[in-house]
Amino acid sequence: GIKIIDPRTGKLKEFECAPEFRHIFESTTTSAMHMDHKGLLWLAIERYGLYYVDLASKKITKFSPDPVVSGEKMKLSFSSSLTDIRERMWVSVDGEGVALIENGKFTMFRHRQGDTSSLSSSNVNMIYEDKKGRIWIGTSGGGLNLFNEQERNFTFYTEREGLPNNTIYAV
Questions:
Q1: Distance separating alpha carbons of residues 119 and 141, to the nearest angstrom
Q2: Rounded to an integer, what distance in angstroms lies between the CA atom of residue 170 and that of residue 102?
Q3: What is the pLDDT of residues 86-141, one digit of tens each?
Q4: Rounded distance, CA 151 to CA 59, Å?
Q5: Which string of b and e fits 61-98 if b means at least 16 CB within 10 Å?
């Protein structure tokens, strides 16, 4: 379930959700969560997908449509998510790269063999936005990737450019 800290008392209380969602929150793992600029709590829930929760109204909504990749519905398993300053959501999809959700549409970014402007690895560990609004993506084995906003591609930094390791968990 979802537990919320009451800032006045410092105590945890259970978030009461609608009956149709109880089985999801009681029997699965939330692999990533974050609060967006509008105050919505986004939850990436293993095997069930992406949900957002309005804590004020206690309304839970499944984000849909589910992304389709190569004509097949993707198995939704996330490890990191972020809503950027432009109010776009970035979600790492385990082993598949990173999805950019913009105006309700998914764009997938993956590693493409031989393409030096693609992600350096599709195994994404973390997504970070710096103070300048730039998106950085840390991978397993591929180093650190910087999203080039104008070209909508990536520049990556690895041990060759001075990183101590090509696996990045945090910036």
A1: 11
A2: 24
A3: 989 898 887 889 989 888 777 889 999 999 999 999 999 999 999 999 999 999 99
A4: 37
A5: eebeeebeeeeeebebbbbbbbbbeeeebbbbbbebbb
- Paired sense of beta strands 144-148 and 49-54, if any: unpaired
Give CA–CA dist 128/86, Å, rounded. Answer: 14
3-state helix, strand, coil in the chain (%, to 5): 5, 45, 50
Distance CA 104, CA 88 (A): 9
Check: pTM over 0.85? Answer yes or no. no
Sheet of 153-157, strands arranged across: 124-129, 135-139, 144-148, 153-157
Say which DSSP state 121 is in.
Answer: -
Query: How far from 20 is each of 29, 44, 59, CA to CA, in Å?
Result: 17, 17, 12
CA distances from 144 to 17, 63, 132, 139 (A): 38, 28, 17, 6
Q: How many CB atoms lie under 10 A from the CB of residue 51?
A: 22
Sign of the alpha-carbon torsion through 109, 149, 156, 153: positive
Cα 7 from Cα 49, distance rounded (Å): 29
Give the tokens for residue 109. Answer: 């970014």
Tokens for 81, please give them. Answer: 């998510």
